[in-house]
Amino acid sequence: MGDKNHLLYVVTIHAILALLHFIVSDAVETLARAGGRQERWQLLRNNTGVVTMHMALTHENTVIIFDQTEAGPSQYRLHQRYNGRRCSTRSRADLKDGACYAHSVEYYIHGNNLRPLRFVSDPWCSSGSFLSNGTLLQVGGHGRGSQRIRYFRPCRDHLCNCSNRRGHCRVIDGMLRIYYCLNMIELLLLVEGMLIVTNLYLNYIPRTDLLIFLFCMTLMTRMVAETTSTLSFIFLLMVTSSSSPTVTPSFFNYQRNRVVKTFPRIPGGGFRNYPSSGSLVILPLDHQDRFQKVEVMVCGGATSGAYEAAARGRFLPALSSCGRMVITGNNHIWKMENMPRPRTMHDMLILPTGHILIINGARRGCAGWQNAATPLLRPYLYNPKKSRGQRFTVLKATRIARMYHSSALLLPDGRVLVAGGNPYNTYTFSNVAYPTELRLQAFVPDYMDRQFNDLRPGNVTVEYEGHSSGVAYGTAFTIHFWLGRRPSKDVEYSVYAPPFTTHSISMNQRLLKLRCRHTTRDGGGLMSAVLEAPSSPNVAPPGYYLLTVVNNGIPSLSQWVRFIPA
Ligand SMILES: *[C@@H]1O[C@H](CO)[C@@H](O)[C@H](O)[C@H]1NC(C)=O
Ligand SMILES: *[C@@H]1O[C@H](CO)[C@@H](O)[C@H](O)[C@H]1NC(C)=O
Ligand SMILES: *[C@@H]1O[C@H](CO)[C@@H](O)[C@H](O)[C@H]1NC(C)=O
Ligand SMILES: *[C@@H]1O[C@H](CO)[C@@H](O)[C@H](O)[C@H]1NC(C)=O
């Protein structure tokens, strides 16, 4: 064979192999679908007005959504600017003025409606977390916004008025004492990691000394991320020295100011952190080991060189591998397995059942403007308790691509809110492969199906002692719920910390399975269960959690419960 013929031959064989692979892997997905599951997709709104780059669920059952403020006109026009000056629909300048548009909204789950929120400075690519009183702390952003720390105090529908006369609710904007705070997307992830091993209360974050410390950590993390892009993942990460060219995932004890231990790097090549954008969760924590076993799971990401290739218009296949590692104890080994497909820019959420939902994202490329292709429309469900090879189920496809700057969030009613997507720096709707996406959806897992309603615990209420505003650590507390039939042997009680979600990372997300001391049931089906609160804030930082009763795999609607120091 001549060289040319040989080349043709090789190319043809490759094309056939690729086609075969495609057919076989599609068959695998179809097989995995068998079994009559009833999950659904709902279109909630055609237009949220702003891109859902960041979102967070408040304990008043609203969702805070925000984009960058510098994207120019959004699809949510305001009648006036925040300084009160009118926005004319006749003036061309006003039509193009970003100040005549909202860049953040608050979404009311029950009413399925929105109101605009005001951001004074740009929160693009920022981090956030809830304080113990339910106030959202949101830090950093872009430009002037990178030096900002912001609070948002959620309030019940129509019960509170916005702080601004004109009815635009304002996110309270404060100034960080320290300068040079770049984008602080990693900030709370570090806190998260430290929370596992140290004694840090989220309340302490605003303290300047800690901020400076965290800031330094963040800066180091970023510098290394940008120069070598080798961070296996961030929330366990500590850079042993800022000049070190390599990064080892480690635990850092901020009180003793030193690294406590280091972990092996995750195998599988490629990279996991932004812009490779794998995702990660802490698998459910369990009272049975007194919450002492902490296991993390990292899935997907981008292959080495994906960012550079995307700049040349080539979108390399993402990573399909997932790694699980127990980070407590002394035996740290990554256990690897593969998702049904390669995936990047996905979100990983812990469902009330303790299963992990992998949703959104793409099959090729990485994060960044127009850096990815081939959206993955099917979520995966991962059951950590099953044996390897049996853990993934491929779920029903949506029709809406969720690419860069999309996000997902668990709602108190067990659905998953899915929103956003914008691979462009402005709102772009035509002549592009993946236009700005403003449709708001809910993914409704099969456990919500009506056929399970007779198993579903109803009307969950939490009893607080006396005038207390919460449940103290390590104490017993009582909940009530209704169950028309005898409970199955397998009733679980879980509490879930609502995350702040952006860029494939659900900061501070965790689920704890609580111990039940005993239950009673009256003739009418009213159940009472005495549960044990987590033993300390090291296990569950103080604040609001979603409490769910799961009967034989079917969850109740969740109720908020607040854990407070005694
Ligand atoms: C979205 O728009 C489509 C087409 O105009 C319409 O049929 C549908 O009812 C709308 N859905 C919602 C939730 O507004
Ligand atoms: C919650 O705590 C923060 C920080 O201490 C404070 O600024 C805010 O006003 C508090 N919110 C409420 C509702 O008490
Ligand atoms: C909110 O504003 C309305 C109308 O301005 C007023 O009647 C109501 O009392 C206010 N509510 C609160 C809680 O301040
Ligand atoms: C449960 O709550 C619903 C409203 O959410 C109410 O209609 C129903 O009567 C309650 N059931 C019981 C047994 O309390």
From TrEMBL:
InterPro entries with a match to the protein in the record: Gal_Oxase/kelch_b-propeller, Gal_Oxidase_central_sf, Glyoxal_oxidase_N, GO-like_E_set, Ig-like_fold, Ig_E-set
UniProt KW Transmembrane keyword: yes
Domain Glyoxal oxidase N-terminal: 53-447
SUPFAM superfamilies: E set domains, Galactose oxidase, central domain
CDD domains: E_set_GO_C
Gene3D superfamilies documented for this protein: Galactose oxidase/kelch, beta-propeller, Immunoglobulins
Transmembrane region(s): 6-24
Domain Galactose oxidase-like Early set, chain residue ranges per copy: 468-562
Entry keywords, A to Z: Membrane, Signal, Transmembrane, Transmembrane helix
Protein name stated in the entry: Galactose oxidase-like Early set domain-containing protein
Native species: Gossypium mustelinum
